[in-house]
Amino acid sequence: MKEANESSNVVNLSQRLDPSSGRGGDLLNAVRNISSRRLQQYIGNMFEHVDDALFDLAEKAENNAAQMHYFDGMREVRKRRPVIERGFLALVSRELNDFAGGNRAPSAGPNVGAPVGPVPGSVELSLVADNELEESLAITSMIGKNESRLSRDLFAVNQRLSVICGGTRIEDATNPIGPALLAQAFRQAMRELNADMRVKLIIYKLFDRYVMAALEELYQEVNAELMRAGVLPQLRHEVLRNTAGDAGAAAGAAAAAGEVPAPLAADDSEASAELLQTLRALFSARRGGHPAGVPGAMPQGPLPTANELIGALSVLQSQAAMVPMPMAAAVPSTSAVDVAEQVLHLKEQLLSQLGSLRGQRPGQIATIDEDTIDLVGMLFEFILEDRNLPPQMQVLLARLQIPYLKAAILDRKLFAHRQHPARRLLDGLADAAKSWSEESDRDGRLHDTIKAIVERLLQEFDDDMTIFDRLHAELAQFQDSNRRRAELAEQRVAESTRGREKLEQARRRAAREILNRIGDHVLPPLIHGVLSRAWANYLVLTILRKGEESNEFREALRFVDAFIASTKPVRTPEAKRDLRQLLPGIERALRKGLANVAFQEADIEKLLAQLHSYYRQQLGEVAPAPAQPTAEAAAPAPLPIPESIQPIAESVDELEDETASAEPAADTITPEVRDQLDLVKALKPGIWLEFSGQEEHFERAKLSWISPMSGRYLFVNRRGLKVGDYSPYELAMVMAEGRARVLASNALFDRAMDAIVDRLSNDEVRPGESP
């Protein structure tokens, strides 16, 4: 940190402003106004997303009870939102007022964060205690993560507030707009919400995503305003070789002297720290205790400094930026070979460039630096081998090796912190690239967006790490815009598929009911034609409109029974009486049913006239018609089917056998298909697969929906357009034949780190690498 030069327009660190003075009060008012305006915007934006989040969780709930928790939470949030918003903003305003008045919160945290304990002796004591603990852990985790992420901007705000508050030391925990006090204020406001703890934890996550994540903008505006007012305008928070970097440099010097490097602190999780220590140990074992550098080379002068490494990399980066990017549809083989060569030989190129800059090639480099160079090299080798990425995208992302090596040297936390901006950007690019295919990106928008981000990093990245956050925000905005359009298209595809399946299910139900009732009866062609065509359509529409449990459907089935009964031979007076009693009901039902399926009045009358003739013959009122050569010749002309019901106007006799598409018996399935079938049945909506066709054509598709009726799997591309649908057995067959494979769903960086650990554990040393 550099002190500002004293001048009439600059406030340096030795200055003290009285907050009650005009100047100090004006500056605090400016901070208060900026904070109030932005926080009101952030908290409002957060609540706009709560409904959607809870609704999505309700749809995916494992049971009805869990689903009701989320729906109840939605209703409670809608009702209590104004109170919670007002409460949060009022608490923040009170903190700012107390701060301006000199009533600072203690460093241990504000009173608003004190948990509200249960009533002594309450039977819910244990449950409340568990909920308080869970809530406290969520708040503590949120505060720690954001204080670390925002450390640079928050440090500057703390220092400048210290100046305008008379020199009182302001820390992260006592900053009225710091993550700690804001999170605790929101927790206090959430006491107004009477909802299940699962719902509250979801809201805390959204608060983290839409309020805490936006604090960087707030701090930058506050810092800019205070800088314009002359408060520490030259303040700098050094990033190069920061806390983690300083520790790394010390470890590197110790390693060069033959000492064991000290553990590198990780601010993300114990798992990240353990991973780093494992990597360090594996790199050390691979070297076998030899110093870092060129094998067999003698030391030549002092070890290169971080600034020398960054300078040499900047030269290589400017050269790489001059190489044109491949086109989206270009065959990537040649480009892939070129990029792979660059990835494998970057370390050698860097040493050569260092030699050019300092006049002699270094024989050694610090162990910490060589480990970083090798680790980044392995990361990008993994990218070039990662089948999760299309070849065209592998070539694009591999161009980022030099910027990422610079970022890793500038900030050692890149490999320790899952939320590091550079890491989030690479993971985001890989996630977007995973869904790419030529068919789904005909306009080239996704390819061009990723290409533009790669080009900007190559051309613009010097040592300002904020570029990763800016580019990640641009990528997220592009992804959100495309996701909304894709979700609409995907919803239409799912609804269309669901509609077709409901129609097919209704047709099969109608067919079964009619065929079961006909049984072994041999019906006259006229009666059979009415049941299998006109009345089958009426049954289908009744199922779709009213449901299978409706009175209308039961009445339609009673008509089928009566219609079939009316064809029985009439040999006694009692039988004639029964038939005459049936006929009025048959006619009324036919008129009603055929009108509902859009038959014209003239066609209905024509059919009824044919039936009248048939029944008069049944009753012996007219002489039977002369014998005809065949039954088909005696059949009346089929009635025309209205165009509006053509999609369901298929004869019952022509319906395919339901068993035709059934999956084979388990004992007839091959072991290969059975293994894939187990994998298929474990798939969840949202997982991506790659389907390969002829001539090396491939398509990336997401499992969008699993039909609850047929169990079929619906796949869509990144634009939400249908790629195909399969039964579980059909999909297992395709996968067993190698024409489809599941793509990994975890982040690129995590997969790469696991692969690197495996590679080092197996002691795999490639040509050109030091042992």
From TrEMBL:
Question: Does the entry feature the keyword Coiled coil, yes or no?
Answer: yes
Checking Pfam families in the record gives: DUF1631
Q: The organism sits in which domain of life?
A: Bacteria
What name is this protein filed under? DUF1631 domain-containing protein
Query: Which portions of the sequence form the region Disordered?
Result: 1-25
Tell me if Coiled coil is a UniProt keyword of this record: yes
> What are the UniProt keywords, alphabetically?
Coiled coil
List where Polar residues composition bias occurs. 1-18
Q: Where is coiled-coil annotated?
A: 486-513
